[in-house]
Amino acid sequence: MADQPEEAQVFPFEDSLKQLEDLVERLESGEISLEDSLQDFEQGVALVRALRERLDQAQQRVDKIVEQEGGETAAQSMDLMDDDNQDMDD
After folding, report:
1. What is the model's pTM?
2. Where are the domains of the chain?
3. Which letter, b or e, does each residue of 18-53 get, where b requires 16 or more Cβ atoms within 10 Å of its Cβ?
4. Is CATH 1.10.287 what the domain over 6-72 is classified as, yes or no?
5. How does pLDDT run across 50-88, given as a tens digit for each residue?
6. Which residue, 2, 49, 44, is CA-closest to 22?
7. In whole angstroms, what is the distance from residue 66 CA to residue 50 CA?
Protein backbone atom coordinates (compact mmCIF):
# COMPACT_ATOMS: atom_id res chain seq x y z
CA MET A 1 0.00 0.00 0.00
CA ALA A 2 3.03 2.27 -0.10
CA ASP A 3 2.10 3.00 -3.72
CA GLN A 4 -0.99 5.05 -2.75
CA PRO A 5 -1.21 8.47 -4.37
CA GLU A 6 -0.27 11.28 -2.01
CA GLU A 7 -3.82 12.64 -1.71
CA ALA A 8 -5.07 9.23 -0.58
CA GLN A 9 -2.56 9.02 2.27
CA VAL A 10 -3.55 10.26 5.70
CA PHE A 11 -0.88 12.27 7.46
CA PRO A 12 -0.88 13.30 11.11
CA PHE A 13 -2.71 16.58 11.64
CA GLU A 14 0.45 18.47 12.55
CA ASP A 15 2.27 17.24 9.41
CA SER A 16 -0.63 18.32 7.22
CA LEU A 17 -0.71 21.72 8.90
CA LYS A 18 3.04 22.16 8.37
CA GLN A 19 2.63 21.18 4.72
CA LEU A 20 -0.09 23.84 4.36
CA GLU A 21 2.14 26.45 6.00
CA ASP A 22 4.96 25.56 3.58
CA LEU A 23 2.60 25.93 0.61
CA VAL A 24 1.47 29.35 1.83
CA GLU A 25 5.09 30.48 2.18
CA ARG A 26 5.83 29.32 -1.36
CA LEU A 27 2.78 31.11 -2.73
CA GLU A 28 3.56 34.30 -0.83
CA SER A 29 7.15 34.33 -2.06
CA GLY A 30 5.98 35.13 -5.59
CA GLU A 31 8.99 33.29 -6.95
CA ILE A 32 7.19 30.35 -8.57
CA SER A 33 5.51 30.05 -11.92
CA LEU A 34 1.80 30.55 -12.43
CA GLU A 35 1.32 26.82 -13.09
CA ASP A 36 3.19 25.88 -9.90
CA SER A 37 1.17 28.48 -7.99
CA LEU A 38 -2.08 26.97 -9.23
CA GLN A 39 -0.96 23.47 -8.28
CA ASP A 40 0.10 24.65 -4.83
CA PHE A 41 -3.20 26.49 -4.39
CA GLU A 42 -5.17 23.40 -5.37
CA GLN A 43 -3.17 21.27 -2.95
CA GLY A 44 -3.66 23.89 -0.23
CA VAL A 45 -7.43 23.92 -0.69
CA ALA A 46 -7.49 20.13 -0.39
CA LEU A 47 -5.40 20.32 2.79
CA VAL A 48 -7.67 22.98 4.31
CA ARG A 49 -10.72 20.81 3.64
CA ALA A 50 -9.05 17.74 5.14
CA LEU A 51 -7.86 19.67 8.20
CA ARG A 52 -11.31 21.23 8.74
CA GLU A 53 -12.89 17.77 8.56
CA ARG A 54 -10.45 16.42 11.13
CA LEU A 55 -11.10 19.38 13.43
CA ASP A 56 -14.84 18.78 13.11
CA GLN A 57 -14.33 15.12 13.99
CA ALA A 58 -12.26 16.09 17.02
CA GLN A 59 -14.99 18.48 18.15
CA GLN A 60 -17.59 15.72 17.84
CA ARG A 61 -15.41 13.43 19.98
CA VAL A 62 -15.02 16.13 22.64
CA ASP A 63 -18.78 16.74 22.67
CA LYS A 64 -19.43 13.02 23.05
CA ILE A 65 -16.98 12.72 25.95
CA VAL A 66 -18.56 15.67 27.74
CA GLU A 67 -22.04 14.22 27.23
CA GLN A 68 -20.90 10.84 28.58
CA GLU A 69 -19.60 12.56 31.70
CA GLY A 70 -23.10 13.87 32.37
CA GLY A 71 -22.34 17.39 31.32
CA GLU A 72 -24.30 19.37 28.83
CA THR A 73 -22.65 20.58 25.70
CA ALA A 74 -23.41 23.98 24.34
CA ALA A 75 -23.33 24.20 20.58
CA GLN A 76 -20.56 26.70 20.01
CA SER A 77 -18.63 27.21 16.84
CA MET A 78 -14.89 26.75 17.10
CA ASP A 79 -13.56 29.52 14.88
CA LEU A 80 -9.81 29.60 15.33
CA MET A 81 -9.53 32.91 13.51
CA ASP A 82 -11.80 34.60 16.07
CA ASP A 83 -9.62 33.27 18.89
CA ASP A 84 -6.53 34.79 17.29
CA ASN A 85 -8.24 38.14 16.84
CA GLN A 86 -9.45 38.18 20.45
CA ASP A 87 -5.88 37.69 21.66
CA MET A 88 -4.86 40.79 19.74
CA ASP A 89 -7.66 42.85 21.28
CA ASP A 90 -6.67 41.95 24.86
Report:
1. 0.62
2. 6-72
3. ebbeebeeebeeeeeeeeebeebeeebeebeebeee
4. yes
5. 999 999 999 999 998 888 877 665 555 555 544 444 444
6. 44
7. 25
